[in-house]
Design a protein that fits this description.
The protein has about 300 residues and is of the alpha/beta class. A seven-stranded mixed beta sheet has the order 10-5-3-2-1-11-12, sandwiched between helices. Strands 4-6-9 form a three-stranded mixed beta sheet. A hairpin with a 4-residue loop joins strand 11 and strand 12. Helix 2 runs antiparallel to helix 12, helix 3 packs parallel to helix 4 and helix 6 packs across helix 8. The longest helix has 23 residues. The mean pLDDT is about 95.
Length: about 300
């Protein structure tokens, strides 16, 4: 199967007007080939969040518009075959993610496998954790699902407030320092952080299918506890996910399938880099839902 450089070299020889059509033909071709190989439906969900020139794109995160994309993607699929969901996303809105998970599981009766060619972070990891199994390679990663409010980790806020209470109780002279910090909290911010944490843990408990309570608690803690992960951008490798007890399938165990998945991934990464596509959702029977990067003034 072609590597990233092979695909890029081939596409780069084409006129700019023809590059998208060529890449689109390749992605749909690889999706069809993977489906025939696995005898399962396959839907790809790709965001251009790694493109350094599009960091401000509002469509990068998981959002409610994605439900429309997935509704089109599941249309006319044979639901009895289950679903392989290829994810490349930075995460996004928890409410939208919950709705998407409930929708897909109701359509495919819970028979869903996540495939992670590179990254499915935050809410993307939530989707992966809800699946029966997760296929990962040595290059793949998931990330913490601890909630963020205004770009701030809710767990860090609660931890900071608890530290403030303890220090003020022990060292009253620290009150002026903490007063400056706590005064920056907006009304209801603390309680909103706590509710977001509780919601995240509740959803993790609902979706993670580990039957052993102790093992399940270990997984939930690793993915939801900010003190455990240290940072929301933490990368959990395939080996780490296995160590935590997740049902991980090795992408490397089937060389032909791995080559197809990675070639598909390379096509999407090139497409999202050299075209105006900000998000792509496609399936193995040719359905496509493509979101363009908004131009200035739109």
């Amino acid at each position: 199967m072609p590597s990233w450089s092979d695909i890029y070299s081939e596409i780069n020889l084409l006129p700019q007007a023809n590059k998208f059509d060529a890449l689109n033909k390749k992605t749909l071709g690889f999706l069809d080939a993977i489906s025939k190989k696995t005898e399962r439906n396959i839907i790809s969900y790709y965001s251009s969040f790694l493109n350094p020139y599009r960091q401000d794109c509002p469509d990068h995160p998981i959002n409610d518009n994605d439900k429309n994309a997935l509704m089109q993607a599941v249309y006319n699929l044979d639901k009895s075959k289950g679903l392989d969901l290829v994810l490349h996303t930075p995460g996004g809105d928890i409410a939208a993610t919950e709705s998407i998970i409930d929708y897909l599981h109701s359509i495919f009766n819970g028979n869903i496998r996540a495939i992670i060619p590179q990254m499915a972070m935050s809410a993307g990891s939530m989707i992966a954790l809800s699946c029966n199994s997760i296929m990962m390679g040595k290059q793949s990663c998931l990330g913490p699902i601890d909630p963020q409010l205004g770009g701030v980790a809710c767990g860090a806020v609660i931890g900071e407030f608890e530290k403030a209470k303890n220090e003020i109780s022990t060292f009253p002279a620290s009150i002026p320092l903490w007063q400056v910090i706590i005064s920056k909290y907006t009304p209801t911010f603390l309680i909103s952080c706590q509710k977001a944490l509780d919601w995240s843990e509740t959803l993790a408990d609902k979706w993670i299918k580990e039957p052993n309570p102790d093992k399940k608690l270990k997984i939930i803690k690793a993915f939801t506890d900010h003190e455990d992960s240290k940072t929301h951008s933490r990368h959990f490798s395939k080996d780490k996910c296995k160590e935590l007890g997740l049902n991980i399938e090795d992408m490397e165990s089937d060389q032909e399938l791995q080559d197809l998945i990675l070639s598909l991934h390379h096509c999407y990464m090139i497409m999202l880099d050299i075209t105006a596509i900000a998000k792509a959702v496609q399936n193995n029977i040719g359905a496509s839902y493509l979101r363009l990067y908004p131009q200035s003034g739109q």
